């Protein structure tokens, strides 16, 4: 989602909502303040804002943080932002697609930084996967997303939303839904409600693994065919025999007919550590 002018109307708004960019603007100025407060960013913090919109959130971040780098993909908003933010000396505006930009280069002036983002629903999974698998020095990720996507970030084993997004989010971070945001808070109102998710970086990963690549390969295998057993998914993903796959599961204290969607991060870690000895 993107934010816009609180009192804008069809005559006064200098831009139009672009359906192709998933633009639904936040219309309550007080909400910007609340979201920044919930993100926990402080005066000495650096922030990468993804989705500047018309600058409502950017202004609040500018008051609360040390430096803000704000990325906006919509070129028609750039002139508006330059005017709206001309007093914000600690804000650097970047015009570009966050999925195509070299974020390491964009944030080169930051030793560490927080992310605050109001993003289109269609971009959520791709953007989150990119951020969660990057080597960027991110201290926290704070995003407004579709409520269903938020549930997938905080889901637990056995729940419907439990999958790779939850595994990636919970391995390095502590995701929490801190605010439910109804569709009426946006203009135009989307067809679904939203939620604001905060994700603080863990000092250490949630589980200890010998090889992170193996850990994520095992987790990915677990959800490759959700209706299959973990043994069948191991056979398909690692090209091992059924006997070998079931031996790995047995050595980890798991039933041979266990399904990946019921396995925890610790189960994936144990299985990955076991598999690493044979692969």
Task: Describe the structure in your own words.
- The protein has two domains: 19-201, Rossmann fold (3-Layer(aba) Sandwich), CATH 3.40.50.150; 212-276, Helicase, Ruva Protein, domain 3 (Orthogonal Bundle), CATH 1.10.8.100.
- Helix 3 (78-84) links the parallel strand 3 and strand 4 (91-95).
- It is elongated, with a radius of gyration of 21 Å.
- The chain is an alpha/beta fold and 279 residues long.
- The model is unreliable at 1-15 and 17-22 (pLDDT under 50).
- The strands form two sheets. The chain has a seven-stranded mixed beta sheet. It has a two-stranded antiparallel sheet with strand order 1-8.
- Helix content is 36%, strand content 19%.
- The protein has eleven helices and nine strands.
So how many helices? 11
Largest beta sheet: what is the strand line-up? Answer: 4-3-2-5-6-9-7
The coarse silhouette is elongated
Number of domains: 2
Report the span from N to C terminus: 43 Å
Order of helices and strands: EHEHEHEHEHEHHEEEHHHH
Helix content: 25-40%
Counting DSSP E segments of at least 2 residues, the number of strands comes to 9
The residue-averaged pLDDT reads 90
**What kind of sheet is the major sheet?**
7 strands, mixed
Please report which band the strand proportion falls in: under 5%, 5-15%, 15-25%, 25-35%, 35-45% or over 45%.
15-25%
Structural class: alpha/beta
CATH topology of the largest domain: Rossmann fold
The radius of gyration is: 21 Å
Q: At the first level of CATH, what is the class of the largest domain?
A: Alpha Beta
Task: Using the 3D structure, state the CATH architecture of the largest domain.
Answer: 3-Layer(aba) Sandwich
Spans of at least 5 consecutive residues whose pLDDT stays below 50 are 1-15, 17-22
Query: In the CATH hierarchy, what is the superfamily of the largest domain?
Result: Vaccinia Virus protein VP39
């Amino acid at each position: 989602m993107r934010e816009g002018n609180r009192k804008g109307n069809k005559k006064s708004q200098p831009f139009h909502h672009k359906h192709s960019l998933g633009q639904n603007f936040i219309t309550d100025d007080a909400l910007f303040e609340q979201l920044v407060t919930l993100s926990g960013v402080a005066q000495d913090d650096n922030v990468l804002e993804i989705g500047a919109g018309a600058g409502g959130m950017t202004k609040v971040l500018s008051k609360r943080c040390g430096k803000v780098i704000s990325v906006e993909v919509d070129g028609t908003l750039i002139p508006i932002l330059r005017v709206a933010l001309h007093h914000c000396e600690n804000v650097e505006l970047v015009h570009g697609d966050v999925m195509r930009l070299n974020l390491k280069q964009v944030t080169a002036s930051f030793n560490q930084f927080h992310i605050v983002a109001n993003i289109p629903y269609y971009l959520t999974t791709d953007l989150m996967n990119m951020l969660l698998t990057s080597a960027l020095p991110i201290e926290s990720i704070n995003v407004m997303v579709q409520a269903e996507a938020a549930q997938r970030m905080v889901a637990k084993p056995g729940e419907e939303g439990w999958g790779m997004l939850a595994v990636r989010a919970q391995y390095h971070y502590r995701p929490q839904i801190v605010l439910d945001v109804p569709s009426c808070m946006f203009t135009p109102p989307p067809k679904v409600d939203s939620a604001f998710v905060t994700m603080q970086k863990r000092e250490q990963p949630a589980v200890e693994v010998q090889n992170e690549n193996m850990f994520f390969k095992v987790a990915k295998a677990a959800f490759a065919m959700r209706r299959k057993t973990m043994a069948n998914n191991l056979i398909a993903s690692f090209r091992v025999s059924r006997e070998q796959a079931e031996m790995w599961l047995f050595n980890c204290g798991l039933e041979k007919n266990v399904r990946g969607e019921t396995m925890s991060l610790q189960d994936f870690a144990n299985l990955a550590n076991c598999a690493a000895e044979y692969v």
